[in-house]
Amino acid sequence: AMAQTQAFKQLGTRFWDGIPMPGCEDTVLWTDEYWTCMCRQYTTTIYHHSGSAKMGPPSDPASVVNHELKVYGVPRLRVVDASIMPTIVSGNTNAPTIMIGEKASDMIKADWGFHHNSLHKVNRVRRGARDVSTSWPVKHTNSTL
């Protein structure tokens, strides 16, 4: 066992001795069956929630937002966080989530007619009124309610 190695002994480490993980009380401690139970009972996201509002095409029944982060069928609502990641990254979600926010801010500014000029000043381009109902994505399903 790893806890019995010289390196771990020097650090004084030890496993959670004698008390089985809640949910695994009926298994013998430290056996393969116990570790299988432990892995199933003691899992956590470590507060990096993501993937609950998947970005994808309207043809994907599991998708919630389109490539512009607009929620299908809900005008004027975007989701701008880690929940839009269709596939969760293997590392920390902090940098990808910052990138999602930066990209979303660029898309929102572009939708409202803000453009950068060569001196990094923001210019507002006047636009006429737009019809939100025609510019917002809607998912069409074949089923009836």
What does this structure look like?
By secondary structure, the protein is mostly helical. The relative contact order is 0.11. It has four helices and two strands. A two-stranded antiparallel sheet has the order 1-2.
Task: Describe the structure concisely.
This protein is mainly alpha-helical.
Shape: elongated
Based on CA atoms alone, the radius of gyration comes out at 25 Å
Question: Total number of helical segments?
Answer: 4
**Which percent range fits the helix content?**
25-40%
Give the termini separation.
57 Å
Write the layout of secondary structure elements.
Layout: H1 6-11, H2 32-41, H3 94-111, E1 114-116, E2 122-124, H4 132-135
Antiparallel strand pairs: 1-2
Jot down its keywords:
145 residues; mainly alpha; two-stranded antiparallel ribbon; 4 helices; elongated
